Amino acid sequence: MESLGKLGHWEFDFINQTIHWSEGVFAILEMDPIEMPISLELGYNSIHPDDREKAKQHMEDVIEKGIPYNLECRLVTKKGAVRTIHSQAELVCDDSGNPIQIVGIFQDITDRTESYIQLKQQELRLSSILQSEPECVKVVSPDGILIEMNPAGLSMIEADTPEDAIGKTVEPLIEPSDLRFYQSIHENALKGIKSSARFRIIGMKGTHRWMESTAVPLTNQKGEITSVLSLTRDISEKVINEEKLIRIKRNQEALINGTSDLIWSIDTNFCLVTANQSFLNVLSFLLQYPAKEGDSVLVKTAGEEFYYKWKEYYERGLSGESFTSYENFISPITLEEEHREVSFNPIRNVDEKITGLACFSKDISSLMRKSKELILNEKRFRVLVENGADVIMILSPRGQGKYVSPSITKVMGYTEKEALSLNLFDVVHPDDSPKLKKRLFDVLALPLGGSLPSETFRAKHKDGSWRYVESTLTNMLSDESIGGIVDNFHDVTEKETQLEAIKTQNQKLKSIAWAQSHVVRSPLARIMGLTQLIRTGSLTKEEENKSLGYLLDSANELDDVIGDIVRKSQEVIPPEFNSKI
Questions:
Q1: What are the CA-CA distances from residue 331 to residues 265, 285, 297, 342 (Å)?
Q2: d(Cα 129, Cα 141) in Å, to the nearest integer?
Q3: Residues in domain PAS (predicted)?
Q4: Where are the alpha helices (DSSP H) in 389-492?
Q5: At 466, is the secondary structure helix, strand, or coil?
Q6: What three-state secondary structure class fits 423?
Q7: Strand pairing of 136-140 and 99-108?
Q8: What is the mean predicted confidence (pLDDT) over 422-450?
Q9: Please, what is the average pLDDT of the chain?
Q10: What pTM was computed for the model?
Q11: Nearest-angstrom CA–CA distance, 494 and 500
């Protein structure tokens, strides 16, 4: 029985100081009873050094305090093995209460102890894993009471201490509209079914989170479900990204389906993989039935030339070439001329193998029409600039030419190259330089596109003569396409010469008028005086006739004066001006 139970019994006689071991004790200590005489010293030395003081103190407490003998300690066998034993004994005393004998047994519990230690270590490892697990691990009773939760879970529900959550119901933490999802996995677990669900929670401090939880049943030794274990992770960021991707996808679908451009992709067999509605409409028209994914994009109904041209395009793209083609044709749908820019780009997988082709067709008809208009307008503008009477120059703020129109040769005699090599102050009359300098300064203060009123300057012609030019300055410095001061000017020399001649003539006419004015006044005064005298009626007939004679003489004199003035004026005004006047 001792061998089967790994037991041994022992006795110690306090009076004779003798000790007795059964065969079971020797077997546990791996000793041979014949070779090993029993002694107190042998018994004491058989106890593990670290446990000897504990065993000695326990014996003293049993004797002095009367406590039951119940000791667990380690023994060291003869072969050096360490055994854990559990010993119980009974103290026998005389009538006076003095101990005379102690009788006990001990059992080798090494296997049980090692199993317990392994279990404790395993429990410690599991506890460490649970405590360090970044996801929420919780145990909930069948009626929804939180039994246990790791630190990560407490953090997710914003509990400052375990006591804030343990022993309380879980459901108040669930978003009311999502409560049915949580209840479903809890009820499934109580039925022995593992299940998962997504739901939102509201933390104890008001933070909203998306959670994904998997619940499984926990059973006792009888197989009865006693609680629910669940692993829950915070998927708030994941849900936000999913919602963002959904929005992006919907926006992309709205964009590609809301454009008249054609967008499609094909596989290596020339079959449609995906396309926007605009392309589906075109393909449906060509196929003469509603197009769908998987249909071939090589259409023979539009003619062999169309078929083979597009087959060549697709084969080039599927061979790895990215390229752009420009198509000009009459649309079979609108029957109007269309210009399209078509791009082909290979699609590769992670192994860089070509799996398909992405295609994009952009309608550039309007752009082509505008381009033609711009080219035509540019030609018209160039003809006007080159053949117009005005010269156009682009100047720096210091008056250096950056561009000059070809009409500079016709107006000022310089070639374009000669004109650009000169500064504006090199050709402007010295007396007009201050005025030009001020205008260049004033135009810089104007906003973009602002112009100064026209002003006349004297400029030196290539032949050395001075010409009058009328100039208008416009500030276009901040315009990227111009980047300077635009000077529009034309030759007004003839006009200025005529105006100067008119001024001179007017001055001469004023001099003639002033010189002849006193000659006119004398006969005119006589006429006026005689007329007043006759009107009085006081004159005789003879006096009246004589006065009328004087009037006639004065009128003839006045006529001679006027004729003299006209003659002198004609001498001042040249015939050509006279004819114009």
A1: 22, 11, 17, 15
A2: 22
A3: 377-447
A4: 408-412, 416-421, 424-427, 433-444
A5: strand
A6: strand
A7: unpaired
A8: 91
A9: 84
A10: 0.40
A11: 10
> E strands within 461-554?
466-476, 484-491
Q: Which tokens hold the place of 268?
A: 């290596």
386, amino acid identity: E
Supply 313's token pair. Answer: 């395009």
- For the record, the structure tokens of 76 come out as 């060291």
- The answer to whether residues 486 and 553 touch, using CB atoms and an 8 Å cutoff, is no
Region of residue 413 (left: phi > 0; alpha: psi -120 to 50; beta: else): left
Q: Which residue in the block uniquely carries the two structure tokens 């198509």?
A: 327
**Contacts of 381 by beta carbon, 8 Å cutoff, 6+ apart:** none
Nearest Cα to Cα of residue 6 among 33, 25, 31, 32: 25
Which token pair is 95? Answer: 């009538």
Q: Which residues have CB under 8 Å from 137's CB, separation 6+?
A: 130, 149, 150, 152, 153, 229, 230, 231, 232
Identify whether the C-beta of residue 260 lies closer than 8 Å to the C-beta of residue 363: yes
| Chain segment 319-365, per-residue pLDDT in tens | 999 999 988 877 766 667 788 899 999 999 989 999 999 999 988 87
Concatenated DSSP letters of 130-192: HHH-SSEEEEE-TTSBEEEE-HHHHHHTT-SSGGGTTTSBSGGGB-GGGHHHHHHHHHHHHTT
The lowest-confidence range among 161-165, 177-181, 219-223 is 219-223
What 3-state DSSP class applies to 301? coil
Distance CA 201, CA 153 (A): 12
Measure the CA angle with vertex 556, ends 552 and 557; round to 5°. Answer: 115
Q: H/E/C letters for each residue in 82-101?
A: EEEEEEEEEEEECCCCCEEE
The model's pLDDT over 275-310, given as tens digits with 9 standing for 90+, comes to: 998 889 888 988 889 999 999 999 888 788 889 999
